[in-house]
Amino acid sequence: MRISFVIPSRNNLKYLKQAVSSIEQCYGTAHDIVLLDDASTDGTWEWINTLDGSHIIKYRNPGPDRVGHTILYDKGVEISRTE
Fold first, then answer.
1. For residue 17, what is the DSSP state?
2. Residue 53 burial (CB < 10 Å; 0-12/13-18/19+)?
3. Rounded distance, CA 71 to CA 21, Å?
4. Residue 54 CB: number of other CB atoms within 10 A?
5. I need a surface site. Which of 18, 42, 54, 79 has the fewest CB within 10 A?
């Protein structure tokens, strides 16, 4: 069964990189990784855009104001490809 890891982020690029790396090391591309950026200013969105693969789903809060992790998490569930 394919699952989706839903990861909202705001200016946590260092930890986001670690999370994505860990998921890919453990599961490869067998599961989706939904990455959601909440108007970060630390290069998060730019880094997310460097990621390739059909297992990566990207979303950016158009900002400039943040919407919060709860709303972003809900958006991630909405756009995920799994149930």
1. H
2. exposed
3. 24
4. 8
5. 54
- pLDDT of 64: 82
Ramachandran quadrant class, 77 (left: phi over 0; alpha: psi -120 to 50; beta: rest): alpha
- What is the average pLDDT across 29-45? 96
Residue 38 to residue 81: CA distance in whole angstroms: 21
58 in Cβ contact with 48 (< 8 Å):
yes
Is there a contact between 34 and 6 (Cβ–Cβ < 8 Å)? yes
Helix (H, G, I), strand (E, B) or coil at 34: strand
Q: Give residue for tokens 């090391």.
A: 25
Of 77, 34, 25, 30, the residue nearest 58 (C-alpha): 34
pLDDT the model gives residue 54: 95
Exposed e or buried b for every residue in 71-80, given b needs 16+ CB within 10 A? ebeebbeeeb
